[in-house]
Structures are given as structure tokens and as C-alpha cells.
Predict the 3D structure of the following.
Amino acid sequence: MPKFCLGIEATADDFSVGILDFNGNVLANVISAFIPKMGGIHPREAARHHGKVVGQVISTAFQEAHVKPEKLALISFSQGPGLGPCLRTGATAARALATYLDIPLVGVNHCVAHIEIGKLATGAKDPVTLYVSGGNTIVSAFEARYYRVFGETLDIAVGNCLDIFAREAGLHQRAGMPLGAIVEKLAEEGNELVDLPYCVKGMDLSFSGLLTAAIRLFEVRQYRLEDLCFSMQEIAFSMLTEVTERALAHTEKREVLLTGGVGANKRLQAMLRTIADEHDSRFCVVPKQYALDNGAMIAWTGILAYEHGKIIPVEKSFVRLKWRLDEVEAPWVGG
Ligand code: AMP
Ligand code: MG
């Protein structure tokens, strides 16, 4: 009898449900994105969106997967890190399902899930991972039971940097595409490298100075928007590539994995491919449907954790807003 897991992702703006079998076949991956009318993501408004769509997204996932609720062996949910109200909405749905169906519950670390879905989708076994999204910017590799953090942002995430710049430049009015993707499109028309702060401190990165400078230059209208987008990408992605390359040289791993929403960017992919080639490593990039936040990654990581006994009782399934990647013991990695 095949076994199935339903995973719920609700760390920030996306509410998503994935259903996988225990062999890693994705049977459903339904995503409902909260799109703010203006400004950034307000946690309570995003949570309200999640609360509204939860029933519909879960039932669509069951329909797509052709799996009945009684056939589920496991429920997993994104336990952190993320925005409190959003996390709690996802966790409440997960607890309700696990209790009603009387099946185990697993709490999944969102950052670990981005790495695990990348490994599942690309066949990478032991990569240096660059995980870049709206909320996170982390260079990591597995060593002695944990995904270790080799470098990370000291302030905002690179996706957030691109998104805020895009909003300030009025690009959010061109709806229908992620803001980072709109910056990418404009950058293709740019060619003049504008002087912006390049900020790598040891193995860590900082994007807030770059963002402030780019916004200021946009406001004085001295440069074309295309050149500003081009320059932001060149500077920010070079910083990410520098740190990833140093981690690769240090760990001597044979694979580089790019994951998270910003991983969809072709220019970033090209830069990382270059360093992977130079170090005789295989370059792996997560497919687009698993690059953004998604329930499939939570379901898959739930299965891995469950197979190593990592279930949690409902009464101890509190959400963990600041749960770091390197706090999660990952006994399923390395055989
Ligand atoms: P996530 O937090 O993983 O859901 O990813 C969302 C982030 O990915 C947002 O900051 C988006 O602007 C960003 N993003 C999506 N597509 C692209 C792209 N093609 N280039 C750069 N950033 C992107
Ligand atoms: Mg998201």
C-alpha cells in the first residue's frame, strides 16, 4: 500500500499544500499567493488570506492528487522560521487534520525544506547550497548531522532588496510577475554598471546599503531604470557568488545547489554555473515550480523526518518564528 504525506506551507505570503508519496513523487502542489495591494507583506493580512483559502487549497490538492484524506499517513507543516500569524494559520490547519485523521504530525523547518526539495528535484546528494528568497539569504552545506551556515545576510534578504527597490520604482503596478522577475526583465535592457555598494563581510552579506543607494539614485533620475536594475543584479549576485565560491573551495563539495525564489533568476544561475564549472562541481538549480515557497517541499521534508522518528505531539507543536537552519538535526542526510 503506498503511503502519502500532506504538507502545509504558510511562512509568509504563500499558502500552499503539497501531497507526495513516500517515494518522493509529487502528486499535488497547490499554491495561493497573497498579493498586497500596496507596500510590503502585512503579517495579519497575509494570515487572513491564508485563513480564507485554506479549505479550498486543501480540497484542490486532494482532487489533483487523487488521494482521499483517509489514505494519508502523515501531516507536516512549516513550523518556522516565518511570520507569526501566517505560521499559526498553517499550523492550526495541520493540527486539525492530524487530530481528525488520527495520524502523526511533523513540524518542518522551512529553510531545510528548500534544500531538500532542491536535492529531490535535481538529484544533488551533498551540495553547497545557496538559498535565496524573499525572507532568507543563506550559504550552507551539510556537516556532521547539521546543515551548517557558512554565510548569511546580516540585514535584509536579497529577494526583499529587489522587491523593495521594485516597489519604490513603481514596478508593482506591472502585476502578474514576481517583482524580482520584473527587475530581471528590465536588467536585460541595461548595460551601464552604476556604482553601488558591494558589501561582503567575511562570509556574511549586507544588502541594505545597496538598496538605499539604488533607491536614492532612482529618485534623482540620473540613470536609466534598466541600468539600475542591471547594476543591482550584477552587484548583489556577485556578492552571493563570492561567498558561495569560498564555501565551495573550503568544503570541497562536488555540487552547487541554487534554491529559493530568487534562484529563478537566469543571471544568478549563470554566475553560479561559472564557479561550479571552475571547481569541477555539478551545478544544480531547483525547477521553477519548487523555487518559490511550496507545500511539496514541506511534505517531502516531513516524510524524511518522519522516517527518522521526528514526530511531534499536537500539544508541543508551537510555531518557531526564528528557527534557524543550523538548529535542525537532520539524521536523514548521508544515508
Ligand atoms: P520565496 O520567498 O522563496 O517565495 O521567493 C520569493 C522571492 O523570489 C521574491 O523576493 C521574488 O521577487 C523573488 N523572485 C522570483 N522570481 C525571481 C526572478 N526571476 N529573479 C529574481 N528574483 C525573483
Ligand atoms: Mg513567498
